[in-house]
Design goal:
The chain is mostly beta strands. It folds into 3 domains: 170 residues, Jelly Rolls (Sandwich); 69 residues, Immunoglobulin-like (Sandwich); 74 residues, Immunoglobulins (Immunoglobulin-like, Sandwich), CATH 2.60.40. The chain is 6% helix and 48% strand. Strand 31 and strand 32 form a beta hairpin. The relative contact order is 0.08.
Length: 413
Amino acid sequence: MTSDEKQPPRARGDRIEWFTVSYRTVALAGGAIVLLAAIGWFAFGRQPPPAPPATADIETGARFETIEGSVHVKRSGRLDWVAATRAVVLRQNDLVKTGPGATAEILFADGTMFNVRPDSLITIEESSQNPISREQRTALAIQSGEANFQTAARGGPGSTTISTPTVRTTAERNTAGNIQVAEGGATGLRIFKGQGAAETRAGQRIALASNEGLRVDATGAAGPKLALPTVPQLTAPANGTDIAYPDLARGITLLLWSAVPDASAYRVMVDFSPSFARPLFDRQGARSTQMELRALEAGSYYWKVAAIGPDGIEGRFSDLWRFTLAKSPQSATSPPPLVFEVAELKGNILHVRGRTEPGATLSLGGVRLEVQADGSFSEFLTFDGGAGATIGLTATGTRGGTVEQRRRVTVAN
């Protein structure tokens, strides 16, 4: 046996002596114990790190942009109504009420605008922003009445939700529309531009695009989608026109607009205020594309027109135009109607076009213009005043009455 070989144990009396110990064996055994302990700790003893706390949304509120007439606010949790002011910040669950002839424009922090019409009741449901994602959420409920809306422009994440007793609508960014809520909750929804998704109380889900509308009855059942008629284009009097009558009580102001092919009638509104909260005229069902206004007082007037489709649904209103009436120093009776449609300059040639009564005498700066048998006129004149100049057109009727209209010269396209 060599010296490198291991020796068996030798007995000494009743003892057995182990005189050789392998250090490698001890190291392996210790390593195994440590490994087993580590596995046990990972499997049973390690606790997952606590989840980070959820980030709370920040309430951003809303403010009154304009207030006209009797508008009141009821704060959440309060019983009293207080008069609305532009200093009021509207918070969640605040109520806003407009009285007869009253309107309010409410601007949310994300840029969404609601124009609340007369005799309406709404609730601010949400106006918040997530500080991390920057997502903005706006929500408003209309219990009764009417509101026009324009959601925020595209750019940041967010949504706008409008609820009524029978339908909940989510409008995308850069969407304009109108919601009307009748007694019992029946709702009319119109999307003028953009798109929205409506979910009725009966569980129907309907997607609406530009120029589409929907009617939801008091039970929450929606009818078919409806195509809105296109927007009429106003023709005359031109926006910003000044009109002078010798006798305002006998003056006739003729409103003209373009025909809409799919319209069965028109709605014409005239008011002293651009809010149209208390319209002087609100004529629905007009069949022609013109309307005469008689015996108006001196002052400024705003007007706009919407087309009504064969199914009775109303399209979007045109842009509003303004004209101003004044009393001229001339004394005459029964002035003729005068419509000054075009005053366009190309080079040094001025084109004027419009309409008056047949047989009327028409002049521009002392120059006589020809009037056709149907009362229309279209003349081209040399003009040195340049674009932006104001010119006056005077018509004298067959009964001696005189009317004058003034407008700015524009450059022809």
